[in-house]
Specification:
Layout (H helix, E strand, L loop, with lengths): L8 H11 L11 E2 L2 H11 L6 E5 L5 H9 L2 E6 L3 H9 L6 E5 L7 H9 L4 E6 L5 H10 L4 E9 H7 L10 H9 E9 L4 E2 L6 E8 L8 H13 L5 H4 L10 H11 L12 H11 L2
Parallel strand pairs: 2-3, 2-5, 3-4, 5-6
Antiparallel strand pairs: 1-8, 6-9, 7-9
Helix pairs in contact: 2-3, 9-12
Length: 286
C-alpha cells in the first residue's frame, strides 16, 4: 500500500509524536508541510535524474523526499543532531541520500563538492533559517563553486530585496550583489500557514541562476561604492559615494565622474543601476 507523503499533516503528527520532537527557536526551525509548495520548489529547480542536489536544513525531510524522488543524489546538511534519527526513519526508503551533521556556516564547500559529488556540478535547494539566509547565499555565490542554480526559500522581505528594480525602496546592496553574480526571480509564494510551527512572516522561493561570465570590473572598488551608497542612502549620490575614504576620491573628482556618465549628482543610491556602479568603478580604476 502506498504510504502518505511526508508533508501530510497526519504523517507530520506521527513523526512529532514518535520522536517527541520540540522545535528549536534558536535554530530557526519552521518546517515546510505543504505539498504544492514542495512540488513547486522541485519544479522550479528543474530537478532531474542527472542532478546532484545540496539541500540545507532538511528538517523532517518533506522537501528532501521530493528531491530524492527526482535527483541522482541529495546531500543534506543538518545542524540539529536530533534530526538524524528522524531523517533515518522518514527517508529510510532511499539510497541516494547522505546527511551531514554540521553547521553549514563552517563547512569546507570545496572539500564537500569533491568528496560528495566527485567535483561534478550540483544544484542548491534550501528552506533556509532566516538568521543565516544572507551569509549562506553570500558564501555559496562568492566561492564560485560548480553550482548550476540555487533555489532558496527566504523571508518575503529578503526576496523582495533580491528581485527589486532600481528606484524601488527594497532595492539595495543585496539586490546589486545578487545581480552581479546571478539573475534572480521569485518563483513560489509560501504563506506562513504552510510551515510548522508558523513563523510570523510569509516566505517566497527565489531562484538564482549563476552567471558564467561576470562583468569586467574591479570588484573591490565596485562593492565599496555600493556599500557606501546604501550605507548613507538618504544622502545624494555625490555625498554617499565619497563616504568611503579608502577610495581617495574628493567630491569634485566624483562629481566629474558622474557628469561624464550623465548621472545626476542629486540622485540617490537606489536610482543607479548595477551598470551605473560598474561604469563608475571602471573610471576610478583607470
Amino acid at each position: 500500500m502506498k504510504r502518505d507523503r511526508l508533508y501530510s499533516p497526519k504523517v507530520i503528527k506521527q513523526v512529532l509524536d514518535k520522536f517527541n520532537f520540540t522545535f528549536s527557536k534558536g535554530l530557526g526551525q519552521n518546517f515546510l508541510i505543504d505539498g504544492n509548495v514542495v512540488r513547486g520548489i522541485s519544479q522550479s529547480a528543474n530537478i532531474t535524474k542527472e542532478d546532484n542536489v545540496l539541500e540545507i536544513g532538511p528538517g523532517f525531510g518533506t522537501l528532501t523526499e521530493e528531491l530524492l524522488l527526482k535527483a541522482k543524489k541529495v546531500v543534506a546538511i543538518e545542524i540539529d543532531q536530533r534530526l538524524l534519527r528522524v531523517l533515518d526513519y522518514t527517508l529510510s526508503d532511499f539510497d541516494n541520500l547522505e546527511v551531514i551533521n554540521q553547521d553549514v556556516l563552517k563547512i569546507d564547500f570545496d572539500k564537500l563538492v569533491e568528496e560528495k559529488f566527485g567535483g561534478e556540478p550540483f544544484k542548491v535547494v534550501a528552506n533556509l533559517p532566516y538568521y543565516i539566509t544572507t551569509p549562506i547565499i553570500t558564501t555559496l555565490i562568492e566561492k564560485r563553486l560548480p553550482v548550476k542554480s540555487m533555489t532558496f526559500m527566504v523571508q518575503k522581505e529578503v526576496a523582495d530585496r533580491m528581485v527589486a528594480d532600481p528606484g524601488n525602496k527594497q532595492y539595495g546592496s543585496l539586490t546589486l550583489f545578487i545581480n552581479f553574480y546571478a539573475t534572480a526571480k521569485a518563483v513560489v509564494k509560501a504563506p506562513k500557514s504552510v510551515f510548522i510551527p508558523q513563523p510570523k512572516v510569509d516566505s517566497v522561493v527565489v531562484q538564482l541562476d549563476l552567471k558564467d561570465d561576470l562583468p569586467k570590473v574591479n570588484q573591490e572598488i565596485l562593492f565599496k561604492l555600493i556599500h557606501g551608497g546604501f550605507q548613507q542612502r538618504r544622502k545624494n549620490i555625490l555625498n554617499s559615494l565619497t563616504s568611503d575614504k579608502s577610495l581617495y576620491l574628493s567630491k569634485d573628482e566624483m562629481g566629474l565622474i558622474l557628469d561624464n556618465l550623465g548621472i545626476n549628482k542629486n540622485s540617490r543610491a537606489e536610482n543607479l543601476s548595477l551598470q551605473d556602479y560598474i561604469n563608475i568603478a571602471n573610471i576610478i580604476d583607470v
